[in-house]
Amino acid sequence: MATTAKVDATEEQARALVEESRETTWARPSFAKEMFLGRFRLDLIHPYPQPSAEDAAKTEAYLTRLRAYLETIDGSVIEETSKIPAEYVQGLAELGCFGLKIPEEYGGQGLSQVGYNKALMLVGSVHASLGVLLSAHQSIGVPEPLKLAGTEEQKREFLPRCAKGAISAFLLTEPDVGSDPARMASTATPTPDGEAYELSGVKLWTTNGVVAELLVVMARVPRSEGHRGGISAFIVEADSPGITVERRNAFMGLHGIENGVTRLHKVRVPKRNLVGREGDGLKIALTTLNAGRLAIPAMCTAAAKWSLKIASEWSSTRVQWGRPVGEHAAVGAKLSFIAATTFALEAALDLSGAMCDEARNDIRIEAALAKLWASEMSCAIADELVQIRGGRGYETAASLAARGERAVGAEQLVRDLRINRIFEGSSEIMRLLIAREMADAHMAAAGALVDRNADAKAKAKAAVGASGFYAKWFPQLAVGAGSVPATYGEFGSLARHLRFVERMSRKQARSLMYAMARWQAKLEYRQGFLGRIVDIGAELFAMSAACVRAQALRTAGGPEAAGAEQLADTFCKQARLRVERLFDALWDNTDDADTALTRDVLNGNFRWLESGVLDPSEGTGPWIAEWQFGPSTEANLLTPFLPSTRTTAGT
Q1: What predicted TM-score, i.e. pTM, was given to this entire model?
Q2: Which of 35-39, 285-289, 331-335 has the lowest mean pLDDT?
Q3: Rounded Cα–Cα distance for residues 448 and 640 (Å)
Q4: Catalytic residues
Q5: What is the pLDDT of the chain when averaged over all its residues?
């Protein structure tokens, strides 16, 4: 196993680094931020944003060509060989798939985020590894960071190459560094002549890194005279002397993914290849993910659509006890869940993508919510598909085909989707990230009250300042338009769901305030509570998206109108039950008991409980300590619930 030097960092240093790297201002409105503050700003998402006619036509024309090519690709070849054939990659390159979002002036297709999402859905439905190949290249690889922070010279040098098919990868994670970038060991040492940097270190889980032509490498520049220092981003030619791909990793799913371990030893990188300034690397990575995270819900939505197709076909033709299995209530409930949730997944995806394209809203929370919710719900859908298919759901597609049955890879879907709850921020990390963002206004108002290191005098002063904010804000959480029966009447039967969303947004805002008063600075350790608040917000966001999408379809008057209302209504009824359970669990839970038991487990008090089994992994390799939430991926960044008096947030 490749190793590298370890860098120690205190908890406070880790916090300071991530807080310094996050965007602290809100120049544009945010629907989700307002919702977490108890303000239901329906006007920010309704009418449901739609691409222009020109953009829609451009996207549809491209998707038509893409679909025709994808119909010639056999995804089972990728699954069986654990490799994407070179001719498939070449075909995608010839179609411009590696430049979907790259502007036309740099040789790309210039698709919108909505169009890009639809292309990923198509590609990912053939095999998930194809979707990962394209999204890792464009969402977090060279194109997106350059679009956001690159110079014009860098864009003209690298973007045309990327658009033509020069595959790129993002190298952040290290063997001993996952969610905690403060411990990053890779270095970028300025050369004596000042014209370059020498990069050294080991990077782990480098998606596309095995076959990449271009790399985005995160490394630490030492602070010195004339150098700002800090974690910085570099564009690196993958064939540079000193770069070694040490292995290609294998996983439970995504059998065609080119993910490996890359070692860099004194790799000379020209100064002109520094993206942004020294020390801006982490901020660039976090900003990139605001839109980059939408690639995951795109592929999750594709998986849900396929699951619905397979589940409905099987449930209508498979007869048991004299009736199609779908007519039995136990199976019918699963079908209803899959159909309703698929509608909501697409609604949240398209809404987030359209808001990204319009650039009138700050979507950092919406993108994170979409990623978190889609990755969790798509896994639930895939599990239900396996259950509906029974033994055939557990059997591989290859085995089914070998005995003459339809090659339905339901079990493969479960394996392929599972990584999405880890990719680009594990669900646990996403909840902490969203919690930090949703509490921004409170951090600005409360200041030292939620700072663990503040003394009594500072807390007393902060209490006086906070009283003004809460005196105006808290009364607004008691009543609102959602309490009036006639509100949102234009939505017909869906109006009651929007009233529910508004009432619950105020309730979760009150709950957060109660928690801050109760636990103050210790709230950051109440990750179970914070996670439930975020999950409530995710459900409310999905409900809002489903309702406004259904209303848009009804207004358009197409064949989907009636069905969309039924799907949205059923989804909201299901989501309401989940929201109510989450609210109950805010205060009635086992969090304290779990914490106590966990402490004893970590102290080794229950070794006796582990007896009676064998561990085949004993002696097979070194243990590598990961952060508390387990292995991270390229962008699984530690973003805890951080107290800060530096935050400036619009309220």
Answers
A1: 0.92
A2: 285-289
A3: 17
A4: 424
A5: 89
